[in-house]
Structures are given as structure tokens and as C-alpha cells.
Design goal:
Blueprint: H1 3-16, H2 19-72
Helix pairs in contact: 1-2
Length: about 70
């Protein structure tokens, strides 16, 4: 739901005060909130995986350097 459509539905409810317009506005609002939460969870999950991959590569690089030093001596 674009912001404009939600605002329009809310104004319509304020003017008419009908249960149908309230339900329509609430449905639009709940859809938007659900979409935001879904996208936020997806972003955080992706970001967490990205960070864990960075730590994994840093740890493997550190272990690789240590193993090279062990083989030198």
C-alpha cells in the first residue's frame, strides 16, 4: 500500500466514521506493517549471514597464517 492510499483511506474513515471504512484502513495498515516486519527480518537475517561469513573468513585466514608459520620451523 502506498502511503497516499493509506492516508486517503484514513481520511475517508475520519469523514464517514463507518465500520467498513475503518476495516479497510485497518487492513491496509496491517498489510503495510506486516510487509515492513517481513522485510526487516529478511534484511537482518541477510546481514547476520554476511557478518558470520566475514568472521569465518577472518578465522580461516588467521589459521592459515598460523599453519604456514608452523611448517616454516
Amino acid at each position: 500500500m502506498p502511503k497516499r492510499e493509506g492516508n486517503k483511506a484514513f481520511r475517508k474513515y475520519q469523514i464517514l466514521k463507518s465500520p467498513a471504512s475503518l476495516e479497510y484502513y485497518q487492513k491496509l495498515r496491517n498489510d503495510v506493517i506486516s510487509a515492513i516486519r517481513r522485510e526487516k527480518a529478511a534484511y537482518l537475517s541477510f546481514n547476520e549471514q554476511l557478518n558470520s561469513n566475514k568472521h569465518l573468513w577472518k578465522a580461516s585466514l588467521f589459521n592459515f597464517r598460523e599453519s604456514k608459520e608452523i611448517f616454516r620451523t
